[in-house]
Amino acid sequence: MPRFKRVLLKLSGEVLAGDARFGIQPSVLRELAEEIRDVKSDGADLGIVIGGGNIIRGVSAANEGMDRATADYMGMMASVMNAVAMQDALEKLGLSTRVLSALDIREVAEPYIRRRAVRHLEKGRIVIFAGGTGNPYFTTDTAAALRAAEIGADAVLKATKVDGVYSADPAKVAGAARYERLTYDDVVRQGLAFMDQAAIALCRENGLPIVVFDMTVPGNIRKVVAGESIGTVISD
């Protein structure tokens, strides 16, 4: 039995690009879908939030002169594209899924309604939350924390390309220390930037543990859900 009965898995859009800098690599998508299938086979309820950074990053576009709200809406639409791609990969493996979008794009996704999302989870479906929060100026990390709270998740699993939270960027600072456990206060006090402050505040207010782990290692998602000591756990 999984340690976490219901989880919210947060994936960055960049993960779907694989070794490329842009777009979606079908082989990466397929491998990720197989990992998620294994988690589902263990009996966990699973919600997923995917960013859109493999197509456009709102903050980066705004820094280069684009209107911030416009750039953020483009990012939300990119997350819908990634969600539909993930749905296709999962359903090719025989899994039942639903995409619920905070943006109204009914031709490809159901509108996000909290009670509908919970009902889909109760029926054993994987729910992919698209369109961020539906509002500019909020990241998909915040969307993940929000959706996790709304569906009554036991934890937010932040899948990254590093094996946890470090005292500094390990790619830039030699000897940066990796943490196994942190409190929300530790994160704020040390200014650790693995997640935005709004997302961390939401998790803290709702007693949601955050697990930051390396998803590039095969089997890690399943291990985290099972309760194995992988990555960094942030909680009270």
Verbal overview:
- This protein has 236 residues and is an alpha/beta fold.
- It has a single domain, classed as Carbamate kinase.
- Helix content is 40%, strand content 19%.
- The protein has nine helices and eleven strands.
- It has helices spanning 13-16, 26-41, 58-63, 68-91, 114-122, 140-151, 184-190, 197-205, 220-226, and strands spanning 6-11, 45-50, 97-101, 110-111, 126-130, 155-160, 165-166, 178-179, 181-183, 210-214, 232-235.
- The model has no long low-confidence stretch (mean pLDDT 93).
The major pleated sheet works out as: 9 strands, mixed
Computed over alpha carbons, the radius of gyration is 17 Å
Strand content: 15-25%
Q: What is the 3D form? A: globular
The computed structural class is: alpha/beta
